[in-house]
Design goal:
The chain is an alpha+beta fold. Helix content is 28%, strand content 34%. The protein has a five-stranded antiparallel β-sheet with strand order 4-3-2-1-5. It comes from Halanaerobium saccharolyticum.
Length: 109
């Protein structure tokens, strides 16, 4: 017999709306992570790579911390705004996103 378990889906019709909301909140909370702290050497390396990617107009991959989650973004760096401590990146779909330097966790070409 081929049986596929559907998890909570099979019980949704029997659950109160409040219970469904609470389960969703618990799942979201489980996905939350704390922001990793970078040491000075990692920060210098990211800074060096940022400047190199900007001057050579390279496509980059950045892991950053936002809304208690680690997210990925790929695109080209348009501008480094040192005064505001942020950068502008154009995603592959031409959408522009601003990231603060403090959000960046990992940076690759």
């Amino acid at each position: 017999m081929n049986f596929k378990d559907r998890g909570n889906k099979k019980w949704n019709s029997l659950m109160l709306v409040e219970h469904q909301k609470r389960l969703k909140e618990l799942k979201m909370k489980e996905a939350e992570v704390e922001k990793p702290e970078l040491d000075q050497q990692e920060l210098k390396e990211i800074n060096f790579k940022l400047k190199e990617a900007l001057t050579k107009n390279l496509t980059v991959s950045i892991k950053f911390y936002e809304d208690k989650r680690i997210k990925d973004i790929k695109g080209k760096i348009l501008k480094l705004e040192n005064y505001e401590q942020q950068l502008k990146i154009e995603k592959l779909n031409q959408e522009i996103k601003k990231l603060k330097f403090s959000q960046i966790i990992e940076f690759e070409f």
